[in-house]
Design a protein that fits this description.
Layout (H helix, E strand, L loop, with lengths): L5 E4 L1 H15 L3 E5 L1 H5 L3 H4 L8 E4 L2 H10 L5 E3 L8 H8 L2 E4 L2 H9 L6 E6 L11 H12 L4 E7 L8 E2 L2 E2 L2 H11 L6 E4 L1 H7 L3 H4 L2 E4 L15 H4 L5 E13 L4 E2 L5 E2 L4 E6 L16 E4 L2 E6 L7 E4 L11 E7 L5 E2 L1 H7 L4 H6 L7 E3 L7
Parallel strand pairs: 1-21, 2-3, 2-11, 3-4, 4-5, 5-6, 6-7, 7-10, 10-11
Antiparallel strand pairs: 1-12, 8-9, 12-15, 12-19, 13-14, 15-18, 16-17, 16-19, 17-18, 19-20
Helix pairs in contact: 7-8
Length: 374
């Protein structure tokens, strides 16, 4: 039989979470962000849950080709724009909208031969300091684009760095929102500044909501402001469950160690289970003893160091557990149990985004409603 580890993707959860984004966004339209292969879930796997989106936002031209091949006829936005002049040819052929964040991209557009002018999103660097035109240069960039015949409509876009929390005692969006308002004042065009965190926390403000919100991590049940809030607070559902089974049990005497480096020593007799999951499956090696895990739907903890193919769990709360018992690493478990991915990520000192995107290729994937694993 196959090794007993499985990732299950829940398209209905994606659709549900998209509905939460739409409710939070009021009258704004919703970009479903599907970059990084839908945050590790697989674009083709979450596809049924994306149908109510107003547009799909991504990075790679190959992913843009994929969604067009799957039948998407609505807007597709390249969040980092094009990377070289010939990319514009595919934008023309597939009718892709794209971000413009530097002068070279404007030069490429001006030299591009096309019968169909492009819809572009001019990016402001409002304080994130990754991509975009600095505020003093933003209006001149807009003016350059506005006279390029290869450009049809110019929309305005920026990105919050701290929408998930307060910054210096004030809401984390305040400093960037002021920059955004000043730099874009009176410029025509649709606007998009709200990411998942801003959509959940601040979209009651019409200026934040704009014309488009960008639902990223929330689409997959991740919580951008965890641990201040959890998934239940926002009504989000996990879009991925990672499960395995116990493949062995061991009884430890006081003083016995577990795993490489003997980082865990039992202080009393202890029964542990060995799970077919390790860092080669995408489970973080740096998860310490105490990371939450479900066995037969009961919450317990990992013990010792995570190995390449296995990890150990404390069976004290689950005395009936035995060979073959179901283990939930995150997501939905048996008997209606749920282990939020953000709880696992927090124990590992990281964020749910990383865990989703790190799922290894060797892990089989099953889609709810599909007949077989992929």
């Amino acid at each position: 039989m196959p090794r007993p580890i499985l990732a299950t993707v829940h398209p209905a959860a994606v659709a549900h979470n998209l509905g939460i984004a739409r409710r939070q966004a009021g009258g704004a339209r919703v970009w479903a962000v599907i970059k990084a292969n839908a945050y590790g879930h697989g674009i083709e796997h979450v596809w049924p849950g994306l149908q109510a989106a107003d547009g799909l936002a991504l990075l790679d031209l190959a992913e843009a080709e994929q969604v067009r091949a799957l039948g998407w006829r609505g807007p597709v936005l390249l969040l980092e724009g094009v990377f070289e002049p010939r990319d514009l040819e595919l934008c023309s052929r597939l009718n892709l909208w794209h971000v413009v964040h530097n002068n070279e991209q404007i030069d490429w557009l001006a030299a591009h031969k096309t019968h169909q002018p492009h819809r572009v999103f001019l990016k402001l660097n409002s304080g994130m300091n990754r991509l975009g035109f600095a505020p003093p240069a933003y209006r001149s960039a807009w003016a350059r684009l506005n006279v390029v015949p290869q450009v049809d409509e110019i929309s305005l876009v920026s990105h919050f760095s701290d929408a998930d929390a307060d910054r210096f005692g004030a809401p984390g969006i305040d400093h960037q929102l002021l920059t955004w308002q000043s730099a874009s004042a009176d410029l025509p065009g649709e606007r998009s500044i709200a990411n998942s965190a801003a959509t959940l926390r601040h979209a009651a403000d019409a200026e934040v909501r704009g014309d488009w919100v960008r639902a990223g991590i929330m689409m997959y049940g991740g919580v951008p402001d965890h641990p201040e809030h959890d998934a239940a607070h926002w009504g989000l559902q996990p879009a991925m469950s990672l499960s395995s089974r116990l493949i062995a049990t061991q009884r430890l005497a006081a003083g016995d160690s577990v795993g490489y480096g003997s980082t865990f020593l039992a202080d009393a007799p202890l029964r542990i289970g060995i799970v077919a999951c390790g860092y080669a499956d995408g489970y973080p090696r740096h998860c310490p003893t105490g990371t939450p895990v479900l066995v037969d739907g009961v919450c317990t903890r990992t013990v010792g160091r995570v190995s390449m193919d296995m990890l150990a769990v404390d069976l004290s709360p689950v005395p009936a557990a035995s060979l073959g018992s179901e283990v939930t690493l995150w997501g939905h478990g048996p008997h209606g149990s749920v282990l939020p991915i953000d709880d696992v990520a927090r124990a590992a000192g990281t964020i749910g985004y990383e865990l989703m995107c790190a799922l290894a290729r060797r892990v089989p994937v099953r889609v709810d409603g599909a007949s077989s694993a992929a």
